[in-house]
Amino acid sequence: RAAPSPKMMENQVFMSFTFYSTILILKMYVVAIITGQVRLRKKAFANPEDALRNGGLQYYREDPDVERCRRAHRNDMENIFPFLFLGAIYSLLDPSPTVARIHFFIFCAGRIVHTIAYLLQLKAPTRSVAYSVAQLPCFSMALQILLATTPYW
């Protein structure tokens, strides 16, 4: 007989949010690994000690490909971290599980497409469309949170 699960784990919306959030966190780890691999391949290190270990101080430098990876990762942090907050609070509002899943899926898919477009330098406006599409569920969740909490301000 299984032990009773915590109340949060019985919340279908929260479990869906947890699934998509975990996918996004793993995606961020993959981008960090890619950044490190590009650094090694291009011999462009951010710290002198790393450059010295990998051939000399001449490799203590910036590289456009490394910087592209870093910008993709920074953009993830600027967008995924707010999603984590909004999605967690939204999950507590008892939304329709289907509607919530659609919100989470659209954000996740948009962020994945955004990263692919960034790293592979896909033709514009692919990246900006992916970014914009991913923002829609965040604005929707934020609005619903504000509407639900307005009576308490």
TrEMBL record:
It catalyses: prostaglandin H2 = prostaglandin E2; prostaglandin G2 = (15S)-15-hydroperoxy-prostaglandin E2; 2-glyceryl-prostaglandin H2 = 2-glyceryl-prostaglandin E2; (5S)-hydroperoxy-(6E,8Z,11Z,14Z)-eicosatetraenoate + 2 glutathione = (5S)-hydroxy-(6E,8Z,11Z,14Z)-eicosatetraenoate + glutathione disulfide + H2O. Pathway: Lipid metabolism; prostaglandin biosynthesis. Keywords: Cytoplasm, Fatty acid biosynthesis, Fatty acid metabolism, Isomerase, Lipid biosynthesis, Lipid metabolism, Membrane, Oxidoreductase, Prostaglandin biosynthesis, Prostaglandin metabolism, Transferase, Transmembrane, Transmembrane helix. One of its GO terms (molecular function) is oxidoreductase activity. One of its GO terms (cellular component) is membrane. It is found in: Cytoplasm, Perinuclear region; Membrane. One of its GO terms (biological process) is prostaglandin biosynthetic process. It is a multi-pass membrane protein. It comes from the Eukaryota. InterPro entries: MAPEG-like_dom_sf (IPR023352), Membr-assoc_MAPEG (IPR001129), MGST1-like (IPR040162). The chain crosses the membrane at residues 13-34, 99-120, 129-147. The keyword Transmembrane helix applies. Its EC number is 2.5.1.18, 5.3.99.3. Its cofactor is glutathione. Belongs to the MAPEG family. Terminal enzyme of the cyclooxygenase (COX)-2-mediated prostaglandin E2 (PGE2) biosynthetic pathway. Catalyzes the glutathione-dependent oxidoreduction of prostaglandin endoperoxide H2 (PGH2) to prostaglandin E2 (PGE2) in response to inflammatory stimuli. Plays a key role in inflammation response, fever and pain. Also catalyzes the oxidoreduction of endocannabinoids into prostaglandin glycerol esters and PGG2 into 15-hydroperoxy-PGE2. This is Prostaglandin E synthase. It comes from Ciccaba nigrolineata. The gene is Ptges.
